[in-house]
Structures are given as structure tokens and as C-alpha cells.
Amino acid sequence: DAKTTQPTSMDCAEGRAANLPCNHSTISGNEYVYWYRQIHSQGPQYIIHGLKNNETNEMASLIITEDRKSSTLILPHATLRDTAVYYCIVRFMNYGGATNKLIFGTGTLLAVQP
Amino acid sequence: DAGVTQSPTHLIKTRGQQVTLRCSPKSGHDTVSWYQQALGQGPQFIFQYYEEEERQRGNFPDRFSGHQFPNYSSELNVNALLLGDSALYLCASSFGVQSNQPQHFGDGTRLSIL
């Protein structure tokens, strides 16, 4: 599975958009980009995933560059409850076998400030 | 719709003892994965169960074993506990092993070894 690089920490003002970058320069054609977040003392929460097109759901938007070597998770209006560690993960999809595991890095600690 | 549930939430054991942790997957899910999360680190993949068989395994010793039942629930067993086994143990469920659908996590069992 491709390795990801994320900043260790970021700050964001409440009500503003939070843009969390992730580099995955060795990503292959079969690898999806997943984003999870983990609020203190809870399990990781799934946010969004994508292959090559931009994706949006009720929580966030995922922007993947055309060469797929980096992506950005966008929280459009950050609130204090969005303070968490955000993990960017690339996952290889081999439809001939079981490759469903997730490999987590250390993520980005996003601190939303009032 | 109940999500992933884990029990117990907290557990204290002493070195050399054995422990069993339990997980009930999200409704409709048939695949269960287990992760270990040490303090300050991202979760690390232990193993995955599908159709009552271990399908993938991470870099964990044989002291870590598991089981999946016909109702898709799962157990994680750890024998001969070491101080280094103190961690948050997370269960994640998903549908199928060859799907790009995301894994959903429970809030974990906090295991402390004295």
C-alpha cells in the first residue's frame, strides 16, 4: 500500500473551511484514498473516500489532483466538534483477493479555534 | 441501526494472563477486522475475519488469535499478556473482503496491563 504524508497539526478558525492536505506520490491505479477522523477516546469515524474523481457528502469534500499524487479533505464550515486527528489512507483494491486492511499513519491533529 | 459494538469498554489484567475481547458488527456487515492502537499512534492492523476464517494477518505474534461466529460477531484473544499489550483494541466491520466500501469502527476496548 502506498505511503501517505500529512502535516502533524493544523489550526482552523470556527466557521471557516478547514483544508487538510495529504501527499500520496506513490499511489497506484488500483488504490483508493480514504479519510477517517478520530475524536479523543472514540474509534475512527469514516468520512469519505474516492478513486480519481472529486467526491462530496454531508460531512466533507475530497479533492484528488489529476495525477492522483495528492488530495485535500475540505470541511466547509468547521466547528469545535471537528477537532480531531484526521487520517488519510490509501488502500489497494485487489479484486482477486482479500486486501481490505487499512494502514494508518499518525494523521493530522486539527484544532478548531473559537 | 446499531453500529459496531465492543465489550468490555475497559479491562485491567496482569502480565501472563489471558484476555478475550468481543465485537458485534454493524447490521448487514459480514467482515470483521481488529486493530491495536497504542497511545499517540495510529491503529495497527491485527487480522481480519470473513466467513469464519482468518483472511489476512498483520505483524502480530501467535499470542493474538481470533474467531468469527456464524452471526458474524467476533472475538479477539490475547494469551500471555505483556506490558506492551496495553492499548486500545478496535474492531471494524465491513461488507465483503473485495469491496471498496469503508470499514466502520467501534469505540474500542481499553486494555491496561499491570
Structure characterization notes:
The complex is a heterodimer of chains A (114) and B (114). In chain A, a hairpin with a 6-residue loop joins strand 3 and strand 4 (45-50). The model of chain A has no long low-confidence stretch (mean pLDDT 91). Chain A has a five-stranded mixed beta sheet with strand order 1-9-8-3-4, with no helix packed on it. Chain A is mainly β and 114 residues long. The termini of chain A are far apart. Chain A contains no helices and nine strands. With 114 residues, chain B is mainly beta. Chain B has strands at 5-7, 10-13, 19-24, 31-37, 44-50, 53-57, 64-68, 74-78, 87-94, 104-105, 109-113. In chain B, the strands form two sheets. In chain B, strands 2, 4, 5, 6, 9, 10 and 11 form a seven-stranded mixed beta sheet that branches. In chain B, strands 1-3-8-7 form a four-stranded antiparallel beta sheet, with no helix packed on it. Chain B is globular and about 40 Å long. The N and C termini of chain B lie far apart (37 Å). Chains A and B meet through strand 3 and strand 4 of A and strand 4, strand 5, strand 9 and strand 10 of B.
Strand order of the largest sheet of chain A: 1-9-8-3-4
Mean pLDDT of chain A: 91
Major beta sheet summary of chain A: 5 strands, mixed
Question: Roughly how many Å apart are the termini of chain B?
Answer: 37 Å
Termini Cα gap of chain A: 37 Å
Largest interface: A-B, 28 and 29 residues
Q: What Rg of chain B is obtained from the alpha carbons, in whole angstroms?
A: 13 Å
Strand content of chain A: over 45%
Structural class of chain B: mainly beta
**Number of beta strands of chain B:** 11
Percentage of residues in strands of chain B: over 45%
Count helical runs of chain B: 0
Q: Can you summarize the main beta sheet of chain B?
A: 7 strands, mixed
> Unreliable stretches of chain A, pLDDT < 50, 5 or more residues?
none
- Can you tell me the overall shape of chain A? globular
